[in-house]
Amino acid sequence: MKKFRKFIYFAIALFFLSSCTPTINNFKPGTGSANFTSYVAVGNSLTAGYANGALYISGQKYGWANILAQQMKKVGMKGIFKIPYMPTEDGVGASEGGGTPTFRTKLVLGYSKNCQGKTSLGPVPSNPQASQAELFKEITTSVAAGGPYNNLGIPGIRVTDLFLPNLALRNPYFYRIAYHPTDTLLYYAAKVHPTFFSLWIGNNDVLGYAASGGVGSKITPMDGPVGVGFKASIDAAVKYLANLTKGDGVIADIPDITSIPYFNTIPYDPIVLNQTQADQLNAAYAKYNGAMKLMGLPYRITFKAGANPMVISDPSMPLPDSLSYLKIRQIKSDELVMLELPTDSLKCAYWGTQKPIPPQYVLTESEIKNVDNAINSYNAEMLRLAKQYNLAFVDFHSIMKSIEHGGLTVDGVHFTTKYLTGNLFSLDGVHLTPQGNAVVANYFIDAINKHYGSHIPKVVVSDYPPVKMP
């Protein structure tokens, strides 16, 4: 009897052990209903692999479109995914403002001294000695002979630029790959005879406005003809690309750009004062507060010991132009400050206290609302087009919201929207790290696999480099 019981216990134990044995993943790459033979990626700086404030070789290699292309090779993609590589690892980045552009090399983490003589770790140019003439030559040297290119990510472009006949004369990143100055960007998509396309564009149609504090750029209107209005331009672009590939492709929408580190790293209240300093400033602003009270306006500028909101310039305040010097106020807690705000000016030039912060460094409540309304309209149109043309769709707006509120852990790497420590965004606070690009590539893969029944293998995010520390 005892031997029988031992046999039963042994058999039960063996059953549970066998039921807990890990199963082998039988995932086999497959195309599903899509044709991945030739892939073209159309988009802006995110598609190009722009990172750390510039376009450079390793950034282009680690771009999400190139990562996706390498995975597509496992399900039938033929040939090389051609990228118009920059001639240097330092790269070239162009300023976002209007007028004559200024150029810079990529940002790296390094040590620098501030106006108070204190040394700290932060973003510095990889080559501060690079001249404007040298960088201009690098960004305008033609690489058209190496094309046609599969990666048509062009930094700085808007949806309305896709059919622009003189884009090469306005954008040096397109100039370097263009055969003729009057060629349109989408004309080049046809040259690789694509069977599958990705289109991730629209960020710059609102980002330029947001990054300039509503001063240096306008939001692309929804209405208007191709080249003017967002709707007509994106409709024409999707129709063109879908016809090229016989309907195989993926569209991605626009994330909530106000959640990226560029707008959320510098707090609204970085002015730290002692009581004596607060009293002196309150005395200085007594006449301002009295004038606002006399006019029946709610604005007041007051300071206390501890952290204080900055004083900003706000041209939209309801005052006549003759009183433009009074169009200043303290920033609200839900308004945003640009990462490029010169913090030395806060420390040593009395910005935010005695001198108001210029409007190009602040995104106000009304400007944030303008950004949100535009993005929601753009995204609704892109979702409609994805359904109309039966294309895969990546909802990065929802994805970014989820990461912003709860973070994301993939392959042992935790991602947040925090600057530097969040692993997702590079040193410019807008573009992605190599690991961030791997995350994005996997979201594209998920959407494509789900829609077309394909089996493109996902990448291991931890195989890609994080932010490089000095």
Task: Write a concise keyword list for the protein shown above.
alpha/beta; 13% strand; 470 residues; five-stranded parallel sheet; 17 helices; 17 strands; single chain; disordered N terminus; Rossmann fold; two-stranded antiparallel ribbon; 2 domains; globular
Q: How would you portray this structure in words?
A:
The chain is α/β, with parallel strands linked by helices and 470 residues long. It folds into two domains: 39-100 and 139-264 and 366-463, SGNH hydrolase (Rossmann fold, 3-Layer(aba) Sandwich), CATH 3.40.50.1110; 271-338, no CATH class. The protein is built from 17 helices and 17 strands. It has helices spanning 2-19, 45-48, 57-61, 64-72, 132-140, 167-170, 172-175, 185-189, 204-211, 230-245, 261-264, 275-284, 286-294, 343-348, 365-388, 396-406, 434-452; strands spanning 39-43, 93-94, 103-104, 107-113, 119-125, 151-153, 196-200, 249-252, 271-273, 306-308, 311-313, 328-330, 336-337, 362-363, 392-394, 408-410, 413-415. Strands 6-1-7-8-15 form a five-stranded parallel sheet, sandwiched between helices. The chain has a two-stranded antiparallel sheet with strand order 2-3. The protein has a two-stranded antiparallel ribbon with strand order 4-5. A hairpin with a 2-residue loop joins strand 16 (408-410) and strand 17. Helix 4 (64-72) packs across helix 17 and helix 10 (230-245) runs parallel beside helix 15 (365-388). The longest helix has 24 residues, at 365-388. It is globular. It starts with a helix and ends in an 18-residue tail after the last helix.
